[in-house]
Design goal:
By secondary structure, the chain is of the alpha+beta class. Helix content is about 60%, strand content about 20%. α1 runs antiparallel to α2, α1 packs parallel to α3 and α2 runs antiparallel to α3.
Length: about 400
């Protein structure tokens, strides 16, 4: 009898421990359904164990069935207690694992935030640069433009993103600009290009663009960054210098260097029986005009003569100023007779349109000469003969006339 009652008491004690344990760990169980289920189950088994104990205490004598009931009650209670504590251990272990996962998630989130802050930091630095700066992503879409660019264009970043910026590129430059950019992008190479870009005032300005690929420390390609500058003034200055290298600053005619190149070309053709004639021209009475009326008046006469020579010759002819009051005209694919007609027309037109001056013209053929220097000398001598003969006349080099005959 003592054994039966001891087993029953042990069962009720185990159920009490089980109920207390469930109440203690209920906050560790995240699922509300599981918490309620375990609590109700513990209460029910505790009540069942208590009922068994009460029925056994009410029985005065115990047979084998009572012993079996008490043993089963105690064993089932112990098994249930073990199961609950194993479940609690599993829950705690799962929570620790979840905590580890959460630490990884938190670390990655912090890393992402750090990268984003670094990105925002260098973009803010770009915003303060006076140069025009843009950035492109790994799909070649330009996603960022600094304040200098947006101020130059007079547009918002939303309008410029993607291909929006191409709306400002000069139509004649768009294909070349895109080709150099996309070719470099495909090869992950640096590129340098120039194109015209419309500014906020609607004016096209020349832009020098220098793009470079950039990557993470690991080598992962991140896109491109480019710096641009307005080179309009420098380009115009270079064009002016290039123009002045080939043209006379006062009259705008070709200079001696350009004439020399044209003469060399025409002389080579003359050796293949392609006729060309050189006119060397001097402005009559120019020194008198300069001394009496001043250099501005003399310059005006030279400009007028340059205009008359240009108007009186063909577009393909080379009209040049040799210096001072001397000019030259190279008439390619022209015979002596035709050249004389042109020269005389120039003399007559100058005499009728310009007062107190005229033209003395010497004519020489490129055929039959040893070199270009000889041609220049012959034409210059004929011009001196015309000037010494009173001016406003045409004198043909006799050797040129003989060769033409």
């Amino acid at each position: 009898m003592l054994i039966v009652r001891s087993l029953a008491v042990a069962a009720i004690a185990i159920q009490a421990m089980l109920l207390g344990g469930v109440l203690g760990v209920r906050s560790s169980i995240r699922s509300r359904f599981m918490r309620v289920g375990m609590l109700l189950s513990s209460i029910a088994t505790f009540a069942a164990a208590a009922a068994v104990l009460a029925s056994l205490l009410a029985t005065g004598t115990y047979a084998i069935p009572e012993y079996v009931m008490a043993a089963l009650d105690c064993g089932l209670s112990a098994a249930e207690l073990a199961g609950v504590w194993l479940f609690v251990l599993y829950i705690n272990n799962q929570q620790r694992r979840d905590g580890s996962h959460q630490e990884v998630v938190d670390f990655l989130r912090k890393h992402r935030d750090d990268v984003e802050r670094a990105r925002e930091s260098y973009l803010r630095a770009f915003d303060d640069f006076p140069a025009l700066i843009w950035r492109a992503d790994t799909s070649a879409h330009r996603s960022y433009f600094n304040r200098a660019w947006l101020g130059f264009r007079g547009r918002t970043i939303e309008e410029e993103r993607g291909d929006g910026w191409t709306q400002g590129v000069h139509p004649d430059d768009l294909d070349g600009c895109m080709s150099s950019w996309l070719d470099a992008f495909e090869k992950r190479e640096a590129f340098d290009t120039e194109y015209r870009l419309r500014n906020a005032a609607g004016e096209y300005r020349w832009i020098a663009e220098h793009g470079r690929p950039f990557s993470e420390e690991s080598g992962t390609f991140l896109g491109y960054v480019a710096s641009c500058s307005d080179i309009t003034e420098a380009k115009e200055q270079a064009e002016r210098l290039a123009y002045l290298a080939d043209h006379d600053a006062l009259t705008g005619l070709a200079n001696r260097r350009v004439l020399q190149i044209a003469l060399d070309r025409a002389f080579a053709r003359a050796q293949r029986d392609v006729p060309s004639i050189l006119l060397v021209i001097d402005v009559d009475h120019f020194k008198v005009i300069n001394d009496r009326m001043g250099h501005p008046a003399g310059d005006a006469v030279l400009v007028s003569v340059a205009r008359l020579l240009t108007e009186g010759t063909r577009a393909a002819d080379v009209v040049a100023r040799l210096g001072g009051d001397e000019f030259a005209v190279l008439l390619e694919m022209t015979e002596i007779d035709g050249a004389v007609v042109i020269a005389q027309r120039l003399v007559d037109e100058t005499r009728s349109r310009l007062e107190e001056t005229g033209l003395s013209i010497g004519v020489a053929s490129l055929a039959g000469a040893d070199d270009v220097t000889e041609v220049m000398r012959r034409a210059d001598e004929s011009m001196s003969d015309a000037k010494n003969g009173g001016g406003s006349r045409v004198v043909v080099d006799i050797r040129a006339a003989r060769h033409d005959a």
